[in-house]
Amino acid sequence: MRTPENQTAAETYQMRANDIARLIDVLQMELERQAKAANEKPKDWGYAGSLGKVRSDLLETLSFISGFTREDIENEFLNQ
């Protein structure tokens, strides 16, 4: 991880926020790539299983950063 000792907390925060934005972009590209592969093999449950793990990890991450429970996040944003 890039964190020069002379960086301020605000600079490190911004650097990490930028990294997260890039990772979200890469995640979107991977979702698109996986969608194509899943469409080519509609009976292969591996793709759905992989996305189940990603979904679970994202819920954990969002719960961590927001302070909301997984259930609150699912009810507010996913079960509409």
Structure, briefly:
Helices cover 78% and strands 0% of the residues.
SSE diagram, text form:
Elements: H1 9-40, H2 46-66, H3 70-78
Total number of helices: 3
Q: Which regions have little confidence, pLDDT < 50, spanning 5+ residues?
A: none
Helix fraction bin? over 70%
- Assembly type of the chains comes to single chain
Number of domains: 2
Based on secondary structure, the structural category is mainly alpha
Query: What sequence of helices (H) and strands (E) makes up the elements?
Result: HHH
Query: What is the straight-line distance between the termini?
Result: 38 Å
What does this entry look like structurally?
- The chain has 80 residues and is mainly alpha-helical.
- The chain folds into two domains: 7-43; 45-80, no CATH class.
- 78% of the residues lie in helices and 0% in strands.
- The protein has three helices and no strands.
- It has helices at 9-40, 46-66, 70-78.
- The longest helix is centred in the first third of the chain and has 32 residues, at 9-40.
Key features?
2 domains
